[in-house]
Description:
- Helix content is 40%, strand content 21%.
- It folds into 3 domains: 4-48 and 66-100 and 178-225, Rossmann fold; 103-162, Obg-related GTPase Ych/YyaF, coiled-coil domain (DNA polymerase, domain 1, Orthogonal Bundle); 247-310, Ubiquitin-like (UB roll) (Roll), CATH 3.10.20.30.
- The protein is built from 12 helices and 11 strands.
- The strands form 3 sheets. Strands 2-4-1-5-6 form a 5-stranded mixed sheet, sandwiched between helices.
- A hairpin with a 5-residue loop joins strand 7 and strand 8 (239-245).
- The model has no long low-confidence stretch (mean pLDDT 90).
- The longest helix is centred in the middle third of the chain and has 30 residues, at 103-132.
- It is of the alpha/beta class and 312 residues long.
Amino acid sequence: xxxxxxxxxxxxxxxxxxxxxxxxxxxxxxxxxxxxxxxxxxxxxxxxxxxxxxxxxxxxxxxxxxxxxxxxxxxxxxxxxxxxxxxxxxxxxxxxxxxxxxxxxxxxxxxxxxxxxxxxxxxxxxxxxxxxxxxxxxxxxxxxxxxxxxxxxxxxxxxxxxxxxxxxxxxxxxxxxxxxxxxxxxxxxxxxxxxxxxxxxxxxxxxxxxxxxxxxxxxxxxxxxxxxxxxxxxxxxxxxxxxxxxxxxxxxxxxxxxxxxxxxxxxxxxxxxxxxxxxxxxxxxxxxxxxxxxxxxxxxxxxxxxxxxxxx
Length: 312
């Protein structure tokens, strides 16, 4: 399952413009939102210059980049922000174009919105657990005690990220997720321009840029914040990039591709991208000894090319 990032921002900050630039989804841009509005959801490709080189090596008929699922909620407030509880990181879009723009103040406002949303979530959870605790279940009563202490912690102006003990698993708080600021400004990223360039063919868009896409930098920051690495599967039918958390194993990689592959995992052929490109083929890499067999506990490295042997 793809990792997810949520986008938040005050009205007219450019958050849906960022969503469109990242996903090319063409979502409607509006300054007004209601609780009934559904979030915009799309996929953002992760640029990786190793992928086309590997695809060219095997003359792949299909090339598929790794991607991150992007969720753009229509506005702020506890109920709307609750749509982001399952995301892995949050992008906070800040207005830097308006005459009276104060990006730093807007960032603090958004942080406060997340704190309020977390407090609302804890309070609602406490109400449900308090009813269940009447049964006398020791585990439920223990959670109720933790929730009472959490509410007191939040009412003192603290955040859930500052809670010293383990949080109840059901909470999935917003303020513990990585928060990355994206300033929509002349000195930051011109999101309107990036959204327009995203609609052009890659070669044509590159002619308008003086350097790499600013969106690639946003995605790179996300990768760093989430501790992501890339691995590849290489074949004539399809050459594809995938993401893993740093420190995850060959079995995790198998599950990322398909649950059946993980279930029937036998062994994994592993070679680095550069070694495969240098050898020119898997057969030559095997002859040189740069391709090896690993088990399910092997820790995947950034740039590994994997061929997983499995039997279901």
